[in-house]
Amino acid sequence: MYELLISNGFDYTFAASLMVSAALIGLGAGGAPGVGSLAGPVVALGFTRFDKPQAIVTSLLIMGQAKCLFPPQRQHIDWRMTLFALIPATAGLIAGISFWAWLIALPDSIAAQQTVKAFCGLVVMAISFDILMARVLQFYKPPQLGIVLSLMLAFFGGILSTVANVAGPLFTWYFQSKGASKDTLTATVACFFFILNVFKVPFYLWLGLFHEPHVLQSVADWVILGLLGLVTLLAWKVGALWRAHASEQWFSFPICLAGLSVGLLVIWQTMG
């Protein structure tokens, strides 16, 4: 990361995108689940290749979501719900990474990558619109997922998490459909994505995404990661305040807003 920041003079845009991404991850882990999905598109603003920011974003996500493993959030994790979603999502993750590795290896595949990204953006927008209509505006009753549909959605979410790193709104919607409260939803989503992102690291090493751009390759990189960790921690506290004081209805508002923003930003990036 340090090389990217100073390669052509200090890159203020990239530095700002890293700080904003770290803050979004903290907000998501602290009390606005799904908001962390904006981190990927925000960091990607400084890149021309969509696959390259994934290693940076995953490192930041793991750092922010690890907070759920400590009190007071740890006691709110629904492990049964987490494991039930994690098994098909991991299968989807493997399928998604295999597909993405094949796609980026093809010559002249940028257009195909953009098409896939745009489709992912549309899916996230559709889910976020449902959260807006059913949970914020309460125009109709939120959907309840059966076992088969839950397994299919978790599998697709694993693919979406790998290909676009924007599966936060989808899995937040998934866990909401299981009747999770604010505290349970926040802790369970953070724990779920922490485990899923740890699973991604070996695959990203295999794809070489920790080498170009260089991520966590020097002492300076780790220092930068530590500073971003402080930003994440401060944002986590803001998210926790929101979770404590927001009603169940308005608690869903930043979730749908982030999802709609993610979808629009991803689609806009594919049109560049």
What can you tell me about this protein's structure?
This protein has 272 residues and is mainly α. It has one domain. The protein has 12 helices and no strands. It has helices at 2-6, 12-30, 39-44, 54-65, 79-105, 110-136, 147-163, 168-176, 182-207, 219-245, 248-251, 253-270. The longest helix has 27 residues, at 79-105. The model has no long low-confidence stretch (mean pLDDT 83).
State the low-pLDDT regions, or none: none
Largest sheet: none
The number of distinct structural domains comes to 1
Strand content bin: under 5%
The sequence of SSEs as H and E is HHHHHHHHHHHH
Keywords: Cell membrane, Membrane, Transmembrane, Transmembrane helix
Protein name: Probable membrane transporter protein
Transmembrane segments: 12-33, 82-103, 115-133, 145-167, 187-207, 219-238, 250-268
Organism: Rubinisphaera brasiliensis (strain ATCC 49424 / DSM 5305 / JCM 21570 / IAM 15109 / NBRC 103401 / IFAM 1448)
Q: TL;DR of this structure?
A:
Helix content is 72%, strand content 0%.
Helix/strand layout:
Elements: H1 2-6, H2 12-30, H3 39-44, H4 54-65, H5 79-105, H6 110-136, H7 147-163, H8 168-176, H9 182-207, H10 219-245, H11 248-251, H12 253-270
Question: Could you name the key traits of this structure?
Answer:
single chain; 272 residues; mainly alpha; 12 helices; transmembrane helix; membrane
